[in-house]
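Table S7 (text form). Paired inputs.
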Amino acid sequence: MEEIKKVASPSDHLANERTYLAWIRTSIGIMVFGFVVVKFSIFVRQVSLLLGKEHIIHPPKDSGPLGISFVILGTMAIILSYMRYQNAKKQLEMGIYQQSSFLIKVMTLLIFFVSLFLIIYLFQTM
């Protein structure tokens, strides 16, 4: 018997787009968090210099790399989500959609490791 390919409906394509947009919102949120971490560290340094009391407020030096790692993570999420969107779109058009959890696994691992770094960072600054 020959396998009949299911033609994707417009709602399938729209669901793919909604998923993509959800990943984009998540990516932007992650990048904004990283930006805020870096800028807050700079703000704390500037306030301490303005007050002339460099030794009262000690901004942690690891906050820059921490914030940048969140921006990189958000950027990677955008790239991976676009790849996933295009792959799902192509599969829907061919009528052979195969669910893949690759992006979910990669992002879960990346966020997990950055979170571990954040936990260590927070313990060191207490």
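Next pair, protein 2 of 2.
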Amino acid sequence: IFDSWVYHKAGVNTSDITRYGVNHVFTIPILKQQINIPDMLSNKVINDTELYNLLGYRFDIKDSVMGYRQKKIDKK
């Protein structure tokens, strides 16, 4: 785990093993994942709970800040 604001890079993978990386940034609720993966996948059914959560299926991702705020107003 590291601060993504710190200048960094990955070195060349000299092994025969594939190196995987997952880049996640955690932030305030109004800012969520930038790509609506469930929408891109036409809300394809994902049976793997871990993958379901990782791809953002648990979240209602709004297209704008106004959409996010309106949802909060509607809940009241």
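Residues 1 and 52 are 22 Å apart (CA to CA).
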